[in-house]
Amino acid sequence: MGQPLWAEDAVTMASLLRAGEISPLDLLAATQERVAAVNPVVNALPTLCFDRARRRLSASADLSGSTLGGLPVPIKDSYAVAGVRTTFGSRVYADAVPDRSDFLVEALEASGGVVFAKSNTPEFEAGANTFNDVFGVTRNPWDTRLSPAGSSGGAAVAVATGMAAIAQGSDFACSVRYPAALCGIVGLRPSPGIVPQGPGGVLGQTLSVIGPLARSVADAGLGLQAMARFDARDPLSRPLAVTDFAAAARQPRKPQRLAFAVDLGVADIEPEIAGVVTAAVRRLEHMGATVAEAAPDLSAAENAFRTLRAHQFASARGELINGPERGLLKPEVIWNIEQGLKLTSADIAAAVRGQAHSRAALLGLLEQHGFLIAAAAPVAAFPVEERYVGRIAGRDLASYLDWLVLGYAITITGCPSIAIPCGFTAAGLPVGLQIVAPPYREAELLSVAAWCEDALWCRMIRPIDPRVPVAG
Questions:
Q1: Mean pLDDT within 167-189
Q2: Closest Cα to residue 172, out of 132, 128, 214?
Q3: Rounded distance between C-alpha atoms, residue 259 and residue 409, angstroms
Q4: How far apart are CA 268 and CA 379, in angstroms?
């Protein structure tokens, strides 16, 4: 190998592990060295559990026949890992140590993943800037003065810097796609039910799903392959057809046709970001894709998402604002819960109708055009001190949710979406585009994304070292 072991891509690592050419313990040691060198600068992995990882490897049967073969994987700090501090980014749970793992963690470990760390996340995943009062801020490795977005910001930074080849994230409004875009990597939001959720959270909800972050589409496909499985304990979990997501992601396929709406017809977006994404789409056309300018009618998506999001926060965390825990919560969490507690049955009914309208509109467009391309995020990385983006394209935004429209307008439809790098700003910051597919067509989405990735030549071949600007 011509580069350090930790710098190899996930597909290569897993292949070497399964072939017995490297051992899981050797890869874990290389990962630990990289974490020691990089994590103090970016604060992406605040809780490490390398000893637990080694104990599990020592007690495990041969992993060479598994999907990941012993690949180290960090888990977002909003998902429980048995025996490992799990805080949800909240002072309420600052010292919590669960005695059992979430279903997702069980699935990853059954696929040969080795959990070695928890990745940083905003409190209860509220907000798309990764900071909290337990562990502080996570910094974007392209410029450590800037934010990696969120809520899977710690996971994205770990992948971009080579502390992980694949990381587990989750996406509610935009929480996989925005960090992927701002960190120059790939993030996949699958359809509800592909990856099992629970035992905590809101039973049967469809807004928040679990998906992989990686440095390439092929690695993201491998990550989804390791996470996806049927689990009867999750009411949305569905028996999977014999689908090899990893193989699909290694087989680029030019789409017959694409729809393109840089702002989805509903979002504010910085002109420079729109220009970079549009140039990337023109490149896809030059490479033979047929592109039509077309946007679905997502006018009902905003009210539907905000209402159902608030309802979900009130359902999951409502008890916290009536007790001593309230004083430990950040304002955005309190606001989300209070908005949910104010809802009437009529509000929720209107939101469900809006969700149905949005889904039908997008499915109609996808039936005609196959896939939809838009910007993955409306801005490039922003100063880490800003709690959220409050101004886009010269317009002041009314709330901390306003800059998330490019993400949640797709979330509300239940369609899978992948964010891939597509270019850079004049300041050298990464820009991403998202590709949306019909529900449960992840294999086709991965193949099309792989073709787009090849056409755009923006894939992160090697992890980056954090760039710390020198003052003055």
A1: 98
A2: 128
A3: 16
A4: 9
Q: What is the pLDDT of residues 301-334, one digit of tens each?
A: 999 999 999 999 999 999 999 999 999 999 999 9
How many whole angstroms separate alpha carbon 165 and alpha carbon 129? Answer: 22
403 secondary structure, DSSP code: G
For every residue of 307-331, DSSP letters joined together read: HHHHHHHHHHHGGGGGSGGGGGS-H
Contact indicator for 215, 463 with CB cutoff of 8 Å = yes
SS3 track for 88-137: CCCHHHCCCCCCCCCHHHHHHHHCCEEEEEEECCCHHHCCCCCEECCCEE
State the catalytic residue, choosing from 101, 111, 119, 151.
151
Whether the ω angle into residue 60 lies within 30 degrees of 0, i.e. cis, is: no
- Please give the model's pTM, rounded to 2 decimal places: 0.98
Q: Exactly one of 78, 101, 175, 417 is catalytic; name it.
A: 175
- Of 245, 241, 244, nearest to 230 by C-alpha is 241
119 is catalytic: no
Q: Give residue 251's identity as a one-letter amino acid code.
A: Q
Catalytic (active site) residue 151? yes
